[in-house]
Specification:
Elements: E1 4-11, H1 25-28, H2 32-44, E2 48-52, E3 56-62, H3 63-69, E4 74-76, E5 79-80, E6 94-98
Antiparallel strand pairs: 1-3, 1-6, 2-3, 4-5
């Protein structure tokens, strides 16, 4: 198993926003300040931000980093033994962290 893990960091939505739709994407889009703050705080923990989107960041780090920061046992690059937990000091800007789901090529 590779020691490098990539995950999606879902940024916290603005007040009163429940789900992202085509109609509300502009209201859901994270402000530039939130994106840069999330980037800075994740990089301070040793992660690399490999991509920024309007509502999320893709981060890369070692298995040990993910296990330590997100309090989870990583089984493979796409599976943890339980949910990744957002640390208390990130909850104001991050709502969730998820490992990628591989595509289903054949139903």
């Amino acid at each position: 198993m590779t020691d490098r893990i990539i995950a999606q960091v879902i940024l916290a939505p603005g007040p009163g926003i429940e789900a992202t739709t085509a109609e509300n994407i502009e209201r859901v889009r994270a402000p530039a300040e939130q994106v840069s703050d999330a980037r800075r705080r994740l990089e301070e923990r040793g992660f690399s931000v490999v991509q920024e989107g309007p509502t999320s960041l893709s981060i890369e780090g070692t298995r040990a980093q993910f296990e330590r920061v997100f309090d989870a046992q990583i089984e493979t690059a796409i599976k943890a033994s339980g949910p990744l937990r957002v640390p208390a000091d990130l909850r104001d800007i991050v709502s969730d962290v998820v490992l990628p789901t591989p595509p289903e090529l054949f139903p």
